[in-house]
Amino acid sequence: MDYLPIFADLKHRPVLVVGGGEVAARKISLLLSAGADVYVVAQSLADEVNQLHQKQSIHWLAKVFDVTQLDDIFLVIAATNNSTLNAQVFQAANQRRRLVNVVDDPARCSFIFPSIVDRSPLVVAVSSAGKAPVLARLLREKLEALLPASLGTVAEIAGNWRDRVKQRLSTLSERRRFWERIFNGRFAALVAANRIDDAQAELEFQLSQNQGQTGDVTLVGAGPGDAGLLTLRGLQAIQQADVVLHDSLVTDEILALVRRDAEQICVGKRAGAHSVAQEETNQLLVKLALEGKRVVRLKGGDPFIFGRGGEELEVLADAGIPFQVVPGITAAAGATAYAGIPLTHRDYSQSVTFITGHCRPESDGLNWSQLAQGHQTLAIYMGAVKASDIQQQLITHGRSPSTPIAVIGRGTRADQQVLTGTLLQLDDLAKRAPSPALLVIGEVAALHQRLSWFGESAHHQTLQQNQPTQWQSVVNLA
Asked: Domain ranges in the chain?
């Protein structure tokens, strides 16, 4: 180990920064955030540093470095573009046994600045001992994604309760088990939901009872397919889950991000295939939560847009199960963006309507006369099976047969296909598209030819009205 990781308390301690440029400004900002009393030696100050000086947030000690300036200093930073001066600062600091950092010069550093994940009072530092700072920053970015912003509040509250927990639980093992349960249970979920009073009450209850907590359910939108579109909050939820109930539309790439020891249960529904009844899924959510488990209900797209998320939450509410919701990128937003089709455009579409192709059997509930009006975009989920009926209804109610349309199969995924044509060809295109498919009807669909960007193919798949069975080109984004 080249460096011993130490978290230094700099509050009200004098720190000398030699240099007043942009690099020095970054270090000064970090020092101020830690409460240091910053002294600067520099010929001139960059705008950002000068503003801090004008606000009296820092002290401009002198323009020229002198070794006597180190006499009462806790640690030193050299951040100039003068290598001779930097070496002089390093030598003088070493002689006085002051910790010193020469920026971007590991050989002249008795301490180094790590990449920091700040969830104060919880702080995570990553260092490569100056060998690969970019790699350290990349690791920090991954940790930023995994660590909820609410962790700082969790740690702050836990610190305030430590003495009470020690009084109630006499042994170290009891306290360890208690905090493990608290940090992985409803208390942390309540803090994440910004329900601080309820979180405090949960902590009080768990301490008084010293028993396992009731589980909870987090409804998470997985997005349209690309694992990169899963939200940070969604990633955090599936990393903390005991069990994940997921749809068939959730991709393997996203499921691979689930905590490895979590149980995964597929409760998906697919046309023409065996599926789990919604009522069975609802009861399973309740059962698992009552067992004290942290449950994630992982749904493709967004759970509140044709995902029946509201129905599942009603069941949980009736059973008294705590829950929260993490929205996801819905297919209409994600798939069209990856296909280069803006849902709205000043020249072509002033509104967009999301429609499901799966309505209740007794009625489709759609106002076809309104939907057939021009200069609007229709984004139709699960509509491939009923594409013929949709095509007929729209044309019958006045939508032009030449209206541009697109069928986006497996949107945002590596094998995405975008089939474009006219409304008269909708049924034929829908039959050819891979599942799941999104139907896009409206003038904006024609922009796919100009705005397509995802994938390496330079061709576009277009079905001409006078050649309903001939393909001019194929977009197969594999």
From this structure: 14-113, 150-213, 214-329, 332-477
Of the residues 226, 242, 247, 386, which is catalytic? Answer: 247
Q: Tens digits of per-residue pLDDT, 383-401?
A: 999 999 999 999 999 999 9
Could you give the C-alpha distances from 62 to 28, 325, 339, in angstroms and in order?
A: 16, 55, 59
Q: Decide: 434 and 409 in contact? Cβ < 8 Å.
A: yes
Annotated binding residue 443: no
* 301 annotated as ligand-binding: yes
Q: Catalytic residue among 105, 198, 269, 364, which?
A: 269
pTM assigned to the model: 0.66
Return the CATH class of domain 214-329: alpha beta
224 is in an annotated binding site: yes
Indicate if 166 belongs to the active site: no
Q: What is the CATH number that goes with domain 150-213?
A: 1.10.8
Residue range 14-113, CATH number: 3.40.50.720
Domain range 332-477, its CATH number among 3.40.50.360, 3.30.950.10, 3.90.1150.10, 3.90.700.10:
3.30.950.10
* CA terminus-to-terminus distance, the chain: 44
For residue range 225-267, what is the model confidence (pLDDT) as tens digits? 999 999 989 998 998 888 999 999 999 999 999 988 899 999 9
pLDDT tens track for 397-455 = 999 999 999 999 999 999 999 999 999 999 999 999 999 999 999 999 999 999 999 96
Does residue 247 have an active-site annotation? Answer: yes
- Asked whether residue 234 is marked as a ligand-binding residue, the answer is no
305 labelled as ligand-binding?
A: yes
Handedness of CA 103, 106, 112, 116 (dihedral sign): positive
Q: Helix (H, G, I), strand (E, B), or coil: what is residue 48?
A: helix
